[in-house]
Amino acid sequence: MTIRLKHLDTYVSINPFGAELVEFQSKGKNYIWTIDEQFWNKTSPVLFPIVGRLKNDIYTLSCKQYSLPRHGFARNYEFEVLQKSESSVTFSLKENEKTLLEYPFRFELILEYTLSNNTLEIKYTVRNNSEGEMPFSIGAHPAFKIGSHFEDYGLLFENDHVLISHELENENFSGKTYPIKLQNGSLPLSYSYFEKDAIVLKQFNSKKITILKNNIPYLAVTVDGFPNLGVWTKPDAPFLCIEPWNGFADNANTSGDIFKKEGITILKKEEEFTASITISIL
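Given the sequence above, the corresponding structure tokens read:
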């Protein structure tokens, strides 16, 4: 059963399973992709406690090996509802017996959804409830509905002129990069960018990324606290994912030590991390 938020003529629906955004509707139009399993079976999964794929799906901690699936496990669990009002809801996920076998840390992951006019803010909080330090990554993965002509769309980066994308091979970084030159900050979309997976930016300067339709602003994603970004779709798929991340996949030469993983965030005991994204219908 999804939870629905409302403000004026705008609606949002979130599934407590994975705390996953499944609908963002204004004036009868839904901007979130509707699942079609021939392409993908998610709409906006939460990526935690890793982003991307570990090398061989394995990491080491104190000389012991652990295994985590791609993008972690948060998307596969029911979240508890802590608070609910007409226009906001707060979800919580804590460790359990199964997660401790994959990720031996005590944590709380809190997602707060707040709807106002045509804007949805999603705030992510990670708390370390373990006795020692806790390594983690976290990411958003919303999929936005795209019309039948993918090339009619583009992305406008408010503060970038050239993007440096890190190439993925078998879902790990190969060490190769390639530049993507923007046209006045804009990237015209083509499925050719996604033939080998995602566009992955370990660094970018823009806090706001706007989806353009026929060069007209259509929808914007504003990020706070997410220094990395993925942009992804599948060939001929009617969606585009804009994925703000704190962390990313392993490279092919990684040692596997989770505390030395590139892009990892380490929280001290009782420390908190917060980040947010804001999705605005334009």
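DSSP finds one helix and 24 strands in the chain. Try to locate this feature in the token string yourself.
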